[in-house]
């Protein structure tokens, strides 16, 4: 147990789950931070904000939820569940793609506790039963089955 505790507290290494598979990866912290910074420098993908938009987003979401409650589109219980109480800024981290050369990082956004976290979960729960019920949802096993049928003709 002491060894695990020492590894966890060692600031020179970063311990992360791999992108695929149930594997844990130990990276040199300096190398990991360099990879993350390099990824975040891509201005086609990421933008530097002049100020933190969290409070403005929180205010706007409260206004929208209040209006939905007044219009009886959501009830008081749903309103209370969705109203943002925390203002934690989502954080980005990268999981190494160990199956690819150079193990590039896959960006992951951790939104737990953020302004939109409860709303996102609420919407995901609404959409979950719809997944797989349209022609636009890709099912790998159906694709393989159809391709197998085409290849065997």
TrEMBL record:
Source taxon at top rank: Eukaryota
Coiled-coil region(s): 29-78
Organism of provenance: Oryzias sinensis (Chinese medaka)
Protein name: Uncharacterized protein
Keyword terms, alphabetized: Coiled coil
């Amino acid at each position: 147990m002491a060894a695990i505790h020492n590894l966890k507290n060692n600031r020179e290494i970063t311990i992360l789950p791999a992108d695929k598979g149930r594997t844990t990866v130990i990276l040199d912290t300096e190398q990991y931070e360099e990879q993350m910074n390099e990824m975040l420098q891509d201005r086609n993908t990421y933008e530097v904000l002049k100020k933190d938009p969290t409070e403005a987003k929180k205010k706007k979401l409260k206004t929208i939820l209040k209006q939905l409650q007044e219009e009886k589109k959501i009830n008081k219980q749903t309103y209370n569940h969705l109203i943002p109480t925390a203002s934690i800024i989502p954080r980005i981290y990268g999981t190494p793609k160990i199956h690819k050369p150079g193990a590039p990082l896959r960006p992951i956004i951790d939104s737990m506790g953020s302004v939109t976290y409860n709303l996102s979960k609420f919407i995901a729960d609404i959409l979950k039963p719809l997944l797989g019920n349209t022609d636009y949802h890709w099912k790998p096993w159906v694709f393989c089955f159809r391709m197998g049928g085409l290849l065997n003709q």
